[in-house]
Design brief:
The protein has helices at residues 5-10, 61-69, 104-114, 119-132, 148-160, 178-193, 205-211, and strands at residues 19-28, 38-46, 50-54, 76-81, 89-92, 166-170, 197-201, 214-219, 222-225. It is an alpha/beta fold. The strands form two sheets. The protein has a six-stranded mixed beta sheet, sandwiched between helices. Helix 3 packs across helix 4 and helix 5 (148-160) runs parallel beside helix 6.
């Protein structure tokens, strides 16, 4: 039986200390669909952890992540965020959000400006992040010259701009080579240890086993294990 909202509160899942976000009975149904895409999702996301959302294709994982990211509206329940989190929430969809004709630096600058960072902040963070991800030598090369794994690393770097408190990742490793995966895992572990809360969707079991601290399983929009 899934834990009730009251039970979650009794387990000290309150909006303080490590808790970044709490979902309570969240529901999402698409128009024209007989079944809900997400039904009664209740769990907390904590700082300093990597939470894996697992399930088969079509289970509702990406929908759930988009609800937390506020790129879609939910139909019922509530999602509560710690006061500072909404302004420091970063969402990385599976599809690459990169401009191929621009350089790595120009892509970072574009996304940094959207985060309302100033030029000097963008420069410092961009160079630091791309150094961590082994891309500093490529920073002034056009993205269209990057390998698939390099593009995935750059994609992740754009999401880390502005030092988010909550990082939402939808299949970030798809198409990445082994070296890229290792570098991405390394930087995510560093950010977790620095207190960032990370929510990860990945179908790659070996990566999940290496990376996540806690898991939530979804089947046909329903949580099978709250991971509490």
């Amino acid at each position: 039986m899934l834990p009730t909202w009251q039970a979650i509160l009794q387990r000290n899942y309150k909006m303080k200390n490590r808790e970044l976000c709490i979902l309570h009975e969240v529901r999402k149904k698409y128009r024209g669909s007989k079944e809900a895409a997400i039904e009664s999702a209740s769990f907390a996301i904590q700082s300093g952890e990597i939470l894996g959302i697992l399930g088969e294709n079509g289970a509702g994982k990406s929908t759930l992540l988009s609800l937390i990211a506020r790129t879609q509206k939910f139909d019922g329940g509530s999602i509560e965020y710690r006061k500072d989190v909404k302004k420091r929430l970063s969402y990385l969809p599976q599809e690459l959000s990169l401009y191929q004709e621009l350089t790595g630096r120009e892509n970072m600058t574009f996304w940094g400006l959207l985060e309302k960072m100033n030029g000097s902040q963008i420069k410092v963070e961009s160079e630091s992040l791309l150094k961590e991800l082994g891309l500093l030598e490529k920073i002034d090369k056009r993205v269209q010259t990057y390998s698939g794994g390099m593009k995935r690393r750059l994609h992740l770097a754009t999401a880390l701009l502005g030092k988010p408190s909550l990082l939402l990742l939808d299949e970030p490793f798809v198409g990445a080579d082994e070296v890229s995966i290792e570098q991405m895992i390394k930087i995510l572990k560093v950010r977790r240890d620095e207190g960032v809360g990370i929510v990860l969707i990945s179908h790659q079991k070996e990566i999940v086993d290496t990376l996540v601290d806690r898991r939530i399983y979804i089947k046909k929009g329903r949580m099978m294990d709250a991971g509490l």
